[in-house]
Amino acid sequence: MQAMVYTKYGPPEVFQLKEVPDPIPKDNQILIKIAATSVSSGDWKLRKAEPFIIRLFFGMIRPRKTILGYVLVGKVIAMGKKVSLFKQGDEVWGTTGMSMGAYAHYKCLPEKAVVTKKPSNMTHEQAAAIPFGGNTALYYLRKANIKSAHKVLIYGASGAVGTAAVQLAKYFGANVTAVCSTTNIAMVSSLGADKVIDYTKEDFSKTAERYDIIFDTVGKTNFNGCINLLNKNGYLLLTAPRFLDMLKGIWVSLGNDKKVVSGVMNETADDLLFLKNLIEQNKMKAVIDRCYPLEQLADAHRYVEQGHKKGNVVITLKQTHEIKP
User: How many beta carbons lie within 10 A of that of residue 221, not counting itself?
Assistant: First the structure.
């Protein structure tokens, strides 16, 4: 099969389209023919090993996992003899976890991985725009015990996590203030935000508003300013925290009536089922900025790394090699 392979950390040009061995499912695995994947901020950071601590987990000198790609959407074409949750022909979506590997035409996953049948009312491309941002937003909002009538501020509301967070917070009944740039105001408003602040014209931390939850999805807010804006028992959620902010968060959470949540999220297949149900009830939709073919993965990474994408960047795969089940 073909896959986008990288054998060293660096710029987008490190990706090379290569022939690699076909994966063979183990007894408890399904073999997925991938139709679409996506590129997130996490993907380009892994490609560059930025921050440096990434090397501790993925290889100090060169990457141990040479095929990146975290999200996949496709069809089950084969399975191991112990698989009972899926059958051949099932349309599925999911995430690959630390194994990565979705920048390829095929991928094997355990049947109990973070994978379920995909939403019936979405294309492959639309479905690929949900799992990364959706799972992340859902995890953090649940950690903050989000409730109806909570006042929630979402910073970076136009990105993959932000667009999902706005929609999920509204589903949970919150009053949502979204922060984004001028060009994204209309899009974020269409997702249900009650108020949108243009950060190029207004500093949200200078207002008199107070919030039950502040969700920084991009790691660009002022930590102390956010803490001061929280109501009693409020939560500051940091998906891309600076190291010093993580240390401050531990200190604040230990000695304060306010809490800071950061670190690696946990996700499950049940989370995907939750999102699937919302989508099929038309209570959540995909936000796609651009689509690229796998052959233009370097261009997609280059665009995402600029930090101005709206929602998600999706990668489509055209099969050139068929694995016979």
Answer: 23
